[in-house]
Amino acid sequence: MASKLQQLQSKACEASKFVAKHGTTYYRQLLEQNKQYIQEPPTVEKCNELAKQLFYTRLASIPGRNESFWKELDYVKNLWKNRQELKVEDAGIAALFGLECFAWYCAGEIVGRGFTFTGYYV
After folding, report:
1. In whole angstroms, what is the distance from residue 118 CA to residue 120 CA?
2. What main location does UniProt list (predicted)?
3. 49, 55 Cβ separation under 8 angstroms
4. CA–CA dist 116, 52 (Å, integer)
5. Could you tell me if 32 and 25 are in contact, meaning their C-beta atoms sit under 8 angstroms apart?
6. pLDDT tens across 14-50, in order?
7. What is the DSSP string of 4-33?
């Protein structure tokens, strides 16, 4: 056990030295590659302004999203009315979508329980 701990410490030390040596180079390269996204001057005020722009842009997109939702709902209602004409492919896609929703629900429950399968800790 002590030898494993020594190996882990040495690997951690090597990784730390690597990051110390090459970290700034990677940082500069990353900033250079993405300089078109950097706002000048990079101040707190500019960040607050961008945050407000994002918030109000998202707020302004709600009517369009609402309209898209109702169009999708009308499409599903139309499919349900004409379910005799439904193709096997469409039914398979709907079944896969339902299965995916259930899988995400199960994953959320597991995460909510603290990554346990048996139950909640009370």
Report:
1. 7
2. mitochondrion
3. no
4. 39
5. no
6. 888 888 888 888 889 988 999 898 888 889 999 999 9
7. HHHHHHHHHHHHHHHHHHHHHHHHHHHHHH
